[in-house]
Amino acid sequence: MRRTAQAVLIGAATTVFSAHAIAQERGQLWKSYQPYPMGGRTATMGGAGVAFGKDSAMPLLNPAGLAQVDKHNITLSATIYNAHAIDSDGFFATGPINPIADPNDIEGPIEGLRSQSFDSFPASFVYSWPMGNEAGRAGHHVVSLSILVPRRAQIEYRGRFGVGLAGSRIEENISNSSTITGYYLGPSYAVQVSSKVRLGLAAMALYHDVFATNSLVQGTSIGGESIRSFATGTTEASSWGLVPVVGLQYEPTSNFHLGLSVAVQSLQMVGKYDQNISLDSSADIGLVLDGLASSTSERTNERLATTDFGVRTPTHITAGLGYQLQKVFAFAADVHYYTPIEYDEYSGVRVINDTSSGVGNSVIRLQERNRVRGEQVVNVNAGVEIFLSDMVALRAGGFTDFSPTPDIEVTQTAERVLDRKVDMFGGTLGFGFLFGPVDLTVGGAYVGGKGQIGALR
Question: H or E segment at 212?
Fold first, then answer.
């Protein structure tokens, strides 16, 4: 009976671990803060534009720039094609092998975790109404209405692990698919205070939409015993918040520009979170020598549904400078500072319903909360614009995108499974085509980096 007991122990321990991993998988906290390149000119100049920008990136970057709009104006930008890829070698960590005493501490062939996804989506829409004096003169006012999608993550993970020793075998397949989108909607107001000073204010409603599916298939065999478990989970969540943004643009000379903007930490309004997990496991237990055999099966359903959910953004302070000669050359650089942030992403009661065969229903209620912490981050954006003719401008830039995620340590718990701490660097390149009041920009961005991802051990 000793070997049978060992088989049951491994199956039970790894099954619980699988369910816990799915329950704790997180994706709502943005792993970095830089948005997708927005606007036209700003997007292809590495995202820099706090000092003199005036396109559709301004409601979030610096609403004061909208005071430069001189006519009723519609500004659009869109991402036509977007590709993501993540490659993580050694996702399943190694350690001293002792599967009986500690089923989560396994050494064996290392398998990687791979992610690849493609999508397209609109990035920004801004409609502006100028009023009062003509642009450039004190008393020129602009009111704008914006719909912005600066952040979106559509990620799929696939990973496989297998190890065998002395007639035993453990195999595990993990997959995760998640789509997380942040929308900003709201009005902006900008005014030309004097010929050198512009001020702006935006009150943006922040809406986050989250959808994720997870699955983990696990099989363990020791001699004539086998344990199989299959866990699936879905998460649907949404939250509404409010982000006030204030900005300033100042021109000490006709060619030199300075800018400053502050986006206050988002104020949480309402939200909801609904996560469902289903866990099925079965075991064929027998002893080869005595011919005895039996089978058991277990089924557990879990649900956490709560209205106490919110995704928050930290206070964001940006300073920028720029230099431009009209229709000749321009340079811009911005420095962003994001304050530390810590909050409960959600809290509620997880209801676990055990419907195992031969046992009957048993219900367990566990109070649960997910604490999110982001460290302070400093990022830099810079770009140049060179006019090849009066109608065509070449634009290029670069930026950093450092992660606020705290350091990830190797652990045998599943609390930070699939957390990412990846510091990124990006570059942009594009062309601007100017036809009177129309500025058509076409370009692309490439972002790459290296870091860590929370793994199962």
Answer: strand 197-222
Please state the three-class secondary structure of 74-136 as a single string.
EEEEEEEEEEEEEEECCCCCCCCCCCCCCCCCCCCCCCCEEEEEEEEEEEEEEEEEEEECCCC
Eight-class DSSP state of 407: P
30-63 per-position pLDDT tens digit: 578 887 778 889 999 999 999 999 999 999 999 9
Q: Taking Cα atoms as reference points, which of 46, 64, 66 lies closest to residue 55? A: 66
Q: Determine if residue 58 is left, alpha or beta; phi over 0 gives left, psi from -120 to 50 gives alpha, anything else beta.
A: alpha
* Segments of the chain with pLDDT less than 50: 1-21, 23-29, 93-101, 103-110, 287-293, 412
Q: pLDDT tens across 251-281, in order?
A: 999 899 999 999 999 999 999 999 999 888 7
Q: What span, in angstroms and rounded, lies between the C-alpha atoms of 194 and 250?
A: 10
| Tally of helices (H runs) and strands (E runs) in the chain | 3, 17
**CA atoms of 196 and 258, how far apart (whole Å):** 10
d(CA 42, CA 40): 5
Rg (CA), the chain: 27
3-state helix, strand, coil in the chain (%, to 5): 10, 60, 30
